[in-house]
Amino acid sequence: MSFSLRVKEELYQKTGSAKHCQIAELAAILHFCGYLSVSKSGIFLKIRAENALIVRKCFTLLKKAFNMSTGARVLQEGENGVYRLSAEDQELVRRVLQSTGDLDAGGELSEDILRSPVNRLVIRSMCCQRAFLRGAFLCAGSMSDPEKGYHLEVVCGHAPQAEQIQELLAGFGIEARIVVRKKYHVVYVKEGSGIADFLNLTEAHMALLDFENSRVVRDVRNTVNRRVNCETANITKTVNAASKQVEDILLLKEKYGFENLPLNLRRMAEVRLENPDAPLKELGACLDPPVGKSGVNHRLRKLSELADNIRS
Fold it and tell me: Which of 29, 49, 47, 199 is nearest to 130 (CA)?
């Protein structure tokens, strides 16, 4: 089972105790997976989704928020795994749409009302905003495995919907961006801290624990790799420098002669040849009197300059 599906299964089990929170989450499902058809016979509401959890959650919210016992049916369309909930009871449909702000007191609406952002009055409180984001992710969200990378997204059919999601996330301190992918507007979060905050505010606490564990392991692994790479680079740099110094000193010995070198440089050259792999600090300790790293580096640089002059 993917990490994203585990998150959705946990969110499916979370339902707000207050009716206004239940309506806010129901509004998210309606606006992401709902369809309306208006005819002379009345208003017909349908929820259609490939994930059965969405339809079941919608059924649960209708039952809790509106004390629904009849008036809605859950069906499976063929063998393609698409699930549908149909509500044909006119009183129920009107109560639902009026509660979610999609139907005014005069009973006026348009068939594309569910393609617009959710009425702000429905999500005016923070608890309702949490419930709305939970429903939005359940319908249109996905998340990568934290062991492979950090990426959370909610796919919206229209730009105003995406902007509303982005605005709500910003209210909780989560930085999200919007990208257009084919005909969809995708709200995404790439920061691990932002994804952790999202899991916390939507009450996916078990998923949050798993995410944080993976995040710690991944961060430690990355830190170790960076240190190993740094140490490897330093060792390579030191070995290359020592090899160049030995090469320069051998050239001076052959073409210039140690007897022509100043005493301090001659002794430095002899110590380097005797200790070709030693770091600068050890080389300085071998001299009499001992010399610090900067002094050793200065003398070796002088020897390299002399060797370069001979080459040129």
Answer: 199
Question: What are the residues whose beta carbons fall under 8 Å from the beta carbon of 47, sequence distance 6 or more?
Answer: 29, 30, 33, 34, 35, 54, 55, 58, 84, 85
Interval 128-186: pLDDT, tens: 999 999 999 999 999 999 888 899 999 999 999 999 999 999 999 999 999 999 899 99
> Helix, strand or coil for residue 259?
helix
For 199-207, the CB contacts below 8 A with 24+ separation are 199/7, 201/130, 201/133, 201/172, 202/11, 202/14, 202/130, 202/133, 202/134, 202/137, 203/11, 203/14, 203/130, 203/134, 204/7, 204/10, 204/11, 204/14, 205/10, 206/10, 207/3, 207/6, 207/7, 207/10
Among 3.10.28.10, 3.90.226.10, 1.20.1250.20, 3.10.20.90, name the CATH number for the domain at 3-203: 3.10.28.10
Domain boundaries defined on the chain: 3-203, 240-311
Q: Please give the radius of gyration of the chain, using alpha carbons only, rounded to the nearest integer.
A: 34
- What is the reported pTM? 0.71
List Cα–Cα distances, 149 to 5, 144, 155, 220, 258, in angstroms. Answer: 16, 6, 19, 14, 59
